[in-house]
Specification:
Radius of gyration: 30 Å
Number of helices: 1
Strand content: 15-25%
Order of helices and strands: HEEEEEE
Distance between the termini: 55 Å
Number of strands: 6
Structural class: alpha+beta
Shape: rod-shaped
Largest sheet: 6 strands, mixed
Length: about 190
């Protein structure tokens, strides 16, 4: 016999044509009402569903963790690079790129820009022809000489957005001249 939710009788009421059982009459604890049990099942399912959503980061941000760049350099999971900046530091605004004018997130470097980042959000690696007609040869080299050999750190701005700040060198050669080397910071959203 199938019942809808509205057809489920309250405790103490009997279903028409049904006989009461005496199987559990000797239990010392009163049994929960049917609707209370169904309510508990429903609340339990909602709790499990909300927890599953939170596991994916919907209700909160995930903790920072160390990451590895595609070319094997390690990322930093904190922002206290004391071996390179023992007196501390303050974040500085970007000098160019997509986040110029946004709240500051990274620090250090002569250049701080999203243009120094690869499509994966790490400091670029390789040699490229740049400029309107390809007149510059630019070599990007990730740097891991400070911060305990780490290549990047994570920073969260006051507006709650998290960024990866990865450092490296940008060597620019105009035509066949000697390169000018800049220390730069790639800023990418994570």
């Amino acid at each position: 016999m199938l019942l809808t939710f509205e057809q489920i009788p309250e405790a103490g009421q009997s279903l028409p044509g049904a006989t009461a059982t005496t199987a559990l009459k000797d239990l010392p604890v009163p049994l929960a009402r049917r609707r209370a049990v169904l309510r508990g099942v429903l609340l339990g399912a909602m709790t499990v569903g909300a927890a599953a959503l939170d596991w994916t980061g919907v209700f909160g941000s995930r903790a920072a963790r160390a990451e590895s760049a595609p070319y094997g350099m390690l990322g930093w999971d904190r922002n206290d690079c004391l071996d390179a900046y023992p007196a501390g530091y303050g974040e500085a605004p970007d000098t160019a790129g997509a986040f110029a004018g946004a709240p500051a997130a990274c620090f250090g470097g002569q250049i701080r820009s999203s243009t120094l980042c690869s499509s994966a959000g790490w400091f670029k690696k390789g040699t490229f022809k740049e400029g309107k007609t390809g007149e510059w040869t630019v070599t990007y080299t990730p740097y891991n000489g400070a911060c305990a050999g780490r290549h990047s750190w994570r920073w969260t701005t006051p507006d709650g957005l998290a960024y990866r700040c990865a450092d490296g060198h940008k060597a620019v050669s105009l035509f066949d001249g000697p390169p000018t080397i800049y220390f730069g910071i790639c800023r990418a959203r994570v």
